[in-house]
Amino acid sequence: MTWWQRFREERGYAVIMTSLVLVPLMGFAGFAVDVGAWYARASAIQRAADAAALAGVVWQPDFASAEAAAIAEARRNGFDNADPNITVTVTDEGDNQLLVQIIDADADMFFSGLFLDQVQIGRQAVAEYNEPVALGAPGNSIGHQMPAGCDDIIGAAGSCAGSGPGWFLDAGGPRSPHIGGEAITTQCLVSWGANCLNSNPINPNYDASGYVFAIDVPEPAVGNPITVQIFDPSHYAWSGKEIPHWGSSSAVRTWLEFSIFEADGVGLTTPETRPIGGCTKIFDPAADPGENAQWATLCTFTPTVADIYPLRVRVQGFAGAEDLAITQDGFSMRAISAGASQPSFYALEYLPMLSNAEATTTFTFAEIADVHAGKTIRMRLFDAGDSNQSGTFTMRPLDPNGQPVGTCRYRSYFAHQDPAAQTWRNSDSGSQCEVITRTGSTSLYNDKWLDIEIDIPANYTCTSCWWSVDYSIPAGVAFYERTTWTVLIVGDPVRLVE
Fold it and tell me: What share of the chain has pLDDT > 70, as a percent?
């Protein structure tokens, strides 16, 4: 065989082999193009699932609204549940969590159709929001529960000892002294009285709508009448350490309005839009023996759903309100169901406190549910640990078991200052969370906000989840505290967790 014949035979072999190899090479090249497109599609699906979960979770626990919002957001991002190839599934993961899964059952194929019939791509996201922290104490009352006729100090024993957290609720008139410890309904920052706004900026924390409390009705209590009562709402006595305690007989006195609102049916906490008929009442400061140091009935209402019924207390914005009032007034409340199951009663956002306890220096103040394990608590205390008596005052947060927590950090600032500009300090104790609030005759946080941050252990669990604060004060010192507290869970209020 000549060389030319061999060449012609080998040339034919090369053509055949090139043809055979070219097909899978082109397939692999095409498959690589499709894989890149699938990664891009998966990223788009993940972004849409994230956005849908975040859009829907804010409606929880109203799952129907949460599902509708999530599906609508997925549609806006290009994934329409009406498309036969697209599936958007929304799953209720609890009161404050929502899962969204998006599946494209027939992803685009440019070249891999030679090898595959169909490619399915799916992604999911779980979003949650931080539930509001309940402030106060466990049970169907808020503020110390005094026996009728008692208007003196919270004693350690005796017929007027009462029961409860060791503090009353507190509301200050619009021109009352901010330095006195009431931070929300007080307009003035430095001085007080009729002319205080002429020379001082307005209190940046001032809120004319006042304070909002929650009457949290469980399912077994639905349909049973609930009677809401207020202790000492007339607040007209002015001597000693009586519950109102601030002002004089000639002072411009504060009027209080109490209003209960309908629940919205979905568990939201601040829908103060539909007052319940007969459940708004204004208490003036005139002497009324039927109200002074007595339990006065605000109203009786029958809950129709298991939900939060907001109760608002304000000192302005209603007929008869005294905008120049300078007195600060203490009271307590309770909600009593005619059935066996009782509602919970707690404050939302801010808890105004007045304690004139001689011996009780451990105060329950906030419920930190175990869903917050691994997060960070930020306590914000206004004018905390103040006193007119000398000595070293130390405060320690206690966990639900009554045990001091580990180390913490804290910062302080005046109301007009930027908290973010302040320096965090470590705990005043190296072994546990402690903050010294007074040394000698100096109150370190007089007229200041004190932020305390505590890291919650990742394995944190609780049955009764109420935290407290213990004050260590010198022997023989009579404790007196007027302060305003709030508790936040640090971090984005709405976030992705998966």
Answer: 81
| One domain for residues 160 and 240 | yes
CATH number at residue 382: 2.60.120
Q: Is there a single domain that holds both residue 324 and residue 388?
A: no
pLDDT band at 239 (very low <50, low <70, confident <90, very high): very low
Burial class of residue 286 in the structure, from the number of CB atoms within 10 Å of its CB (0-12 exposed, 13-18 middle, 19+ buried): exposed
pTM over 0.85: no
Range of the domain at 426: 361-498
Same-domain check for residues 397 and 338: no
378-412 burial string, b = 16+ CB within 10 Å, else e? Answer: bbbbbbbbbbeeeeebbbbbbbbeeeebeebbbbb
Q: Which residue would you say has higher pLDDT here, 428 or 160? A: 428
Tell me: do 349 and 445 sit in the same domain: no
Q: Phi first, then psi: what are they for 481, rounded to 5°?
A: -140, 125
* CA 107 – CA 117 distance, rounded (Å): 11
Asked if residue 299 lies in contact with residue 311, where contact means CB atoms within 8 angstroms, the answer is no
CA distance 272 to 68: 25
